[in-house]
């Protein structure tokens, strides 16, 4: 029998067990690198490892990623920000043509053509697109990212995020809200009407607000939201709340029509995902900072178009490594089930690419109510990602892990070497055009895209140091 | 050597260790009741245990507590809501007179007298008060609660919270913001000017907003904020954000002067603790629901006035059990240290009395940056409180504990029996009148007040069942 005086020693013991288990797992490097790499990739991994540029190049990629300071500076038409002309459209994920486009991408493209006055209805849009009369390109090829179908056309207002360090920019459309929305492939008149309101009212009003207020520090908002139960991909309730607090005073003082101000506040207030369209371009700015460093094995894009899942790696430039898009495991909205689900879609995986989203799930345990699973899964997902990442984010921290930084900067060779795939949270689009969102869940990327990326890195490797023992300097 | 295929089994094992430790501690009743009770209290505990009313009475107290549905319905002058006349003042904690009042209470009373036009300055107020020309009563005696010094005077606007179930009401002043404020004993002209603005602008504007909007569901906001890193005593950032989202649309549509609307938004937006003055009366409504049930051992008030720490228990009516107020262990603002600190003060312990605050710290691990300690302390505090509480709150849940309800309804006999004292988060007031807040931290209530309460319960016990074996029914 244990006796207690005023200090509850026994309870502390119990709680220490908890703390110890947590500390042990957080602090101990799980030795998954002891496992054999994905079969067939040994030679490529060896070639990349023999590339003397790799270590420094990859370190430089992730250094640039975490040094990025994304600030929301303006909202302008895509025509102006991205140089999009009439008939030019961006979409999520790797390149795809109309013939191979998924239902949500076709629905969103049709909606965007109707919105731009290029088509009367879906059938009309389908006919025009099938004739090759529209031009398609990935958002990622224009410093942009788009959630779900990710369709951007010339008249749509886009948020401009600027890096406080070097002035680079990244872009994303305004979040349309929930229900039937273009990004989930819906194109009904209400969808088009909302796009017009975004263009004519909300976009200009936010532009006025930001010019009046000055830039919004998106990195700071993400950092705070991670301490408030968001992971800033599938849960953005805290971040959207904080964003409203940041911009409302200046919104109120724009001198705009009172009914427009109220409508703007109600619109953002009605959609907890509004902030996603800022966390995404914030990630894009960070990932792009780490691009195009020869020898770097850091992943700079993971993106899907509902047909293919693709990645890009710093050391291989704009080359996409793709595989068929996987399906998402998750929870469905009432009235929908797996048979209604499209395949994995959207550029929102830029969040996981840059240390938040599924990689920060431990900060957002309540998200399991939305995407399924247990609270321990949320912790596991984050802990596992330390195995395939290059650093811990200096600004994005997880309170429950003792304020450890989130696992940031995916190393393609670590993925192939360990067999551990990135953890991704995502929404689920209906498979047919016009349906909208049907659920949300978790998805596992295809391993082959990482294997292919490592192969491409191996082909570009400069094995000058192949005969040099590890730790020895090359002759200069 | 463990080999991995696509599924990272080893990592899952590691994470299960964590999950198991968590589950074990959450699920296993730690057997602290095996420890001997506080010396000298055995006879009283036995007498209370022999009171056949106790079990049902205590269960009814906590049932009523958790059934309470607090809604913010209006903001009205204290004169009207609480029937306060000129020269009548409420204060935090158990009863105290001017001669024994702490520095912060004296400062706040002087400020309130200046604000009400009853005194010109501190010395003037001190003289008038020392003559016994003012009337003092605890907030708790008037269905009200007040943070820190907790001073309420007739002209101050107070929030009205109403129970959706039975229409009972509870009251609290509007939070004045940070820095030099009346509740921390400051009385400078800026403090008085702010009180006038609350009375003339913010109070009426919030009243208009609430009448236009209808009641705000405070229970729902607390429940959501606990999933967003707040514990709703010393951390209210999420709750204040959600509150702003709830009221701003109607605030904008009141038709009030635009500059007043902007000032109101900026004022609430500038103070993450604004919501505390709603979580406190929400707690008061719940605690009062459990009052005055003969035989009930549930604590219905824990409150401090900077001189004494006092509690009230359901079965002993309005009787206070008091002891000298303890000092707070915590973190100090720059330029301050323990030598500047007043003793424990305020009615904000109503949060811990009703299952949030320190009892919900596991939901708010980031709070350790404000009150000190490690993340594991936050978890420990909540886990330990299950030992002295009657139930788990059905609405207030902690995601990281697998959505377990917060430990709710303190049983005075469990405190004495186990030696486990309530965990309280709190602000630290400067010891001298006029200073303001100097820090924040954790405080441990004096055990003697619980011992005294159990003694009083024992004296009122009706040992009709003393000769009846446990489980046998009394003859009717």
What this model shows, in words?
- 2 copies of one chain form a homodimer.
- Chain A is of the alpha+beta class and 476 residues long.
- In chain A, 39% of the residues lie in helices and 17% in strands.
- Chain A is globular.
- At the A-B interface, helix 1, helix 9, helix 10 and helix 14 of A face helix 1, helix 9, helix 10 and helix 14 of B.
Note the main sheet of chain A: 4 strands, antiparallel
Strand adjacency order, main sheet of chain A: 5-4-1-6
The largest inter-chain interface, given as chain pair and residues per side, is: A-B, 69 and 68 residues
| Mean pLDDT score of chain A | 90
Give the radius of gyration of chain A: 23 Å
**Helix segment count of chain A?**
16
Measured between the Cα atoms of the first and last residue of chain A, the distance is: 71 Å
Helix content class of chain A: 25-40%
Could you state the oligomeric state of the chains shown? homodimer
Low-confidence stretches of chain A: 1-33, 465-476
Number of strands of chain A: 15
Structural class of chain A: alpha+beta
> How much strand content do the residues of chain A show?
15-25%
Q: What best-fitting shape of chain A do the alpha-carbon axes yield?
A: globular
Structural features:
homodimer; 476 residues; alpha+beta; 15 strands; disordered N terminus; disordered C terminus
Can you describe this structure in just a few lines?
The structure is a homodimer of 476-residue chains. Chain A has 476 residues and is α+β, with helices and mostly antiparallel strands.
């Amino acid at each position: 029998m244990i006796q207690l005086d005023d200090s509850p020693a026994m309870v502390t013991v119990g709680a220490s067990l908890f703390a110890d288990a947590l500390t042990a797992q957080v602090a101990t490097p799980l030795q998954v690198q002891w496992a054999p790499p994905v079969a067939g990739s040994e030679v490529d991994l060896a070639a990349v490892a023999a590339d003397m540029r790799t270590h420094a190049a990859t370190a430089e990629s992730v250094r640039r990623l975490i040094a990025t300071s994304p600030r929301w500076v303006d909202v302008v038409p895509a025509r102006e920000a991205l140089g999009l002309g009439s008939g030019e459209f961006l979409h999520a994920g790797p390149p795809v043509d109309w013939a191979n486009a998924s239902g949500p991408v076709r629905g969103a493209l049709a909606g965007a053509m109707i919105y731009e006055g290029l088509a009367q209805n879906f059938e009309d849009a389908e006919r025009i697109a099938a004739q090759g009369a529209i031009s398609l390109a990935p958002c990622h090829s224009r410093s942009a990212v788009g959630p779900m179908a990710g369709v951007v056309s010339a008249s749509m207002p886009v948020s401009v995020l600027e890096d406080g360090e070097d002035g680079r920019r990244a872009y994303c459309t305004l979040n349309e809200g929930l229900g039937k929305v273009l990004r989930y492939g819906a194109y009904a008149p209400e969808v088009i009407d909302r796009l017009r309101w975004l263009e004519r009212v909300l976009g200009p009003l936010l532009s006025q607000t930001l010019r009046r207020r000055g830039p919004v520090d998106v990195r700071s908002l993400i950092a705070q939201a991670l301490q408030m139960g968001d992971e800033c991909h599938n849960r953005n309730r805290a971040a959207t709340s904080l964003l409203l607090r940041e911009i409302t005073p200046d919104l109120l003082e724009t001198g705009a029509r009172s009914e427009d101000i109220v409508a703007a506040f109600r619109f953002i207030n009605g959609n907890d995902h509004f902030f996603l369209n800022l966390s995404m371009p914030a990630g894009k700015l960070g990932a792009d900072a780490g691009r195009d460093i020869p020898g770097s094995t850091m992943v700079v894009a993971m993106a899907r178009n509902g047909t293919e899942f693709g990645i890009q790696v710093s050391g291989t430039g704009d080359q996409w490594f793709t595989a068929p898009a996987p399906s998402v495991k998750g929870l469905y909205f009432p009235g929908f089930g797996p048979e209604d689900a499209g395949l994995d879609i959207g550029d929102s995986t830029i969040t996981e690419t840059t240390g938040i989203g599924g990689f920060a799930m431990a900060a957002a345990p309540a998200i399991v109510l939305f995407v399924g699973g247990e609270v321990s899964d949320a912790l596991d997902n984050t802990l596992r990602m330390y195995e395939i990442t290059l650093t811990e984010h200096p600004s994005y921290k997880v309170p429950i892990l003792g304020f450890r930084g989130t696992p940031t900067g995916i190393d393609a060779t670590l993925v192939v070497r360990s067999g551990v795939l990135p953890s991704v949270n995502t929404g689920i689009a209906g498979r047919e055009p016009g349906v909208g969102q049907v659920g949300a869940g978790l998805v596992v990327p295809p391993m082959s895209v990482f294997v292919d990326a490592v192969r491409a890195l191996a082909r570009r490797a400069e094995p000058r140091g192949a005969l040099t023992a590890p730790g020895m300097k090359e002759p200069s």
